[in-house]
Amino acid sequence: MENLKKKILQKKAIISVIGLGYVGLPLAVEFAKKGFLVIGVDTDKEKIKKINSANSYISDVPSARLKPLIKKTLKCYPDYSKLKQADVIIVAVPTPLSKTRSPDISFILKAIRKISKTIKRNQLIILESTTYPGTTRDVVLPLLEESGLKGGEDFLLAFSPERVDPGNKKYKTKNIPKVVGGINGESTQLAGFLYSQIIEKVISVSSPEIAEMTKLWENTFRAVNIGLANEMALICHKMNIDAWEVIAAARTKPFGFLPFYPGPGLGGHCLPVDPLYFSYKAGLKGIEARFIRLADEINSAMPNYVVERIKKILKRAKRALCNSKILILGITYKKNIADIRESPAIEIIKILSRRKARVSYSDPFIEKIKLGKRIFRSHPLSRRFLSQQDCVVIVTDHSLDYNFIVHNSPYILDTRNVLSNIKGVERKKIEKL
Ligand SMILES: NC(=O)c1ccc[n+]([C@@H]2O[C@H](COP(=O)([O-])OP(=O)(O)OC[C@H]3O[C@@H](n4cnc5c(N)ncnc54)[C@H](O)[C@@H]3O)[C@@H](O)[C@H]2O)c1
After folding, report:
1. Using one digit for the tens of pLDDT, what is the confidence trace for 138-153?
2. Cβ partners under 8 Å of residue 289, min gap 6
3. In the predicted model, what is the mean pLDDT of residues 4-25?
4. Which CATH architecture has domain 2-206?
C-alpha cells in the first residue's frame, strides 16, 4: 500500500465519496479544494444536477465555494459508473430507523454491494455512516470479500464517524477531530493519513468497533442528558422554578457540570436515531439499554407536552384547541439551518392538526412542507397576521426579530428560552416551556 500512500501525499489519489448529503458533500468539497480529484456519487439525480450546476443545497457549502471545483476537481454522477477509477472510497449514505424503530442499514448494504462489484487491489474503503458496532467488520467486510479479494491484504477497510454539526460557525469538517479505526493496523494508518490531508487532528483507535461505538456513545450522551434536562424542566415548571435560570447558575461551576437544555423534543438525523442503533445491538446481547429507553420515552413525549401547554395558555383566554389559530415559529430541528428531518415541530403540527386547531407555520428556511395530503406554506410575519393568532409557539430559535414578534402576538409559548430578555408588561404574554 506504499504506492497509495505516495499517491495521497502527492494529491494524485482519486477519492470517491458515495452519498453527497450533509456529511458527504462537505467532505468531498474539502478533498477537492486540496487538489484531489473527487468522484461524487449520489443516487438522487436532482441533487447531482444541483451540484453540477454549482447550486448547493447545504448551508455549510456555499454555492460560491462549489463553483470553482465543479467539473475540475469535483465530478459528480448519479451512478457508480466511474467508481473503478477511485483509489479511496468513502461511504456516507443514510442510516435511518425502520418502521419498527430498529436500524435500517439497507443504504449501506446497497452501496457496499455496488463497490464490491468493482473493488480492486490496493483500494482503501472507509465507512462514515453512523451505525452499530460490528457493521464494518461483520457486515461490510464479508460483502466486499465476495469479490474474491481479502480485506487487510488486498484492500484496506476502516470506519470513521462523522461529527459534522450543521450550521456551526466555529467547528467545520477541517477542525473537528476525526476518529479512525481500521480492520488492521495498515487500514487505520492509511485512513488516518488520508484524513490528515484535510483535517487538523486525527485520532487513531484500535478497531472499527471502537470508532463505531465512539459515535454512538457521543450521541447517546447528548440524547440522555437532553432527556434529563427535559424531565427536570417539566418538574421545575410544576414547582414554579425557572429551569433555564437554574442551568445558568449551575454552569458557573467550573468542573463536573455540563449544560444541556430542555426543548420541544429531539430532532435531526442523529440524536433521535443513533442511541437506538446502540440499544438494538445491546438487545442482541440480551441487555436492555435502560437509560436510552427512558431518554427516548421522555424526549419523544415532548411534542405532546408542548401541545398540553398550548392548551393551558388557550384556556386562560377561554378558548379550546379546536378552531384556535396556532402559529408555529420555526419548524427545522435546529437554529438557522434548513433541515426538518425528525423535527419535533412536525410532530407538534400533526398533533395540533389532528385536534382540529387551525395551525400554520413561519420559517425563513423552509418554504413549504407536505404532511399527508396537506401542504403548509411558510407564512410571512406581519403585524396583522401575528395579532390574529390565539397562540404563537416558538419551536426553533432562529435569528428573528423577537421584539416585533412579542409586541404583536397575543400569547407566546417559548420552548427555547429565546425571550429571556423580554421584561415588563410584554413578559406577561410569554410562557416558558
Ligand atoms: N447530518 C448530520 O449532521 C450527520 C452528522 C454525523 C453523522 N451523520 C451520519 O452520516 C450519514 C449520512 O448522513 P447525511 O446527513 O449526510 O444524510 P443525507 O440524507 O443528507 O445524505 C445521504 C445521501 O446519500 C444518498 N444515497 C442514498 N443511498 C445511496 C446509494 N446507495 N448510493 C449513493 N448515494 C446514496 C442520498 O440520496 C443522500 O443524498 C448517516 O449515517 C448519518 O447518521 C450525519
Report:
1. 999 999 999 999 999 9
2. 275, 278, 279, 282, 283
3. 96
4. 3-Layer(aba) Sandwich (3.40)
* pLDDT per position as a tens digit, 337-349: 999 999 999 999 9
414 Cβ inside 6 Å of ligand 1: no
- What is the atom index within ligand 1 of the atom nearest the CA of 161? 7
Q: Kindly report the number of other CB atoms within 10 A of residue 6's CB atom.
A: 11
Residues 6+ apart with CB under 8 A from 398: 329, 330, 332, 335, 336, 363, 364, 365
Half-sphere exposure of 429 (CA within 13 A, CB side): 22
Q: What is the pLDDT of residues 90-108, one digit of tens each?
A: 999 999 999 998 999 999 9
Give pTM, 2 decimals.
Answer: 0.93
Residue 270 designated active-site: yes
- CA gap 216, 203 in Å, rounded: 16
Helix (H) or strand (E) holding 326: strand 325-329
Please report, for the chain, the start and end positions of each structural domain, with discontinuous segments joined by +.
Answer: 2-206, 216-299, 304-432
Q: Considering only the top CATH level, what class is 216-299?
A: mainly alpha
Quickly state the pLDDT bin for 365 (edges 50, 70, 90).
very high
Q: How far is CA 206 from the centre of its chain?
A: 26
CATH number attached to the domain at 304-432:
3.40.50.720
Q: How close is the Cα of 41 to the center of ligand 1, in Å?
A: 12
**C-alpha count within 13 angstroms, C-beta hemisphere, residue 375:** 4
Task: Record the cell numbers describing residue 316, joined without a space.
Answer: 386562560
Q: Are 361 and 347 in contact (CB under 8 A)?
A: no
Task: Determine the Cα–Cα distance for residues 409 and 416; give it in Å rounded to an integer.
Answer: 17
Kindly write down the DSSP assignment for every residue of 256-281, as one continuous string.
Answer: S-------S---SSSTTTHHHHHHHH
- CA–centroid distance, 95 to ligand 1, in Å, is 7
Do 2-206 and 304-432 come out as alike in CATH topology? Answer: yes
Work out the burial of residue 319: count CB atoms within 10 Å of its CB; fewer than 13 is exposed, 13-18 middle, 19 or more buried. Answer: middle
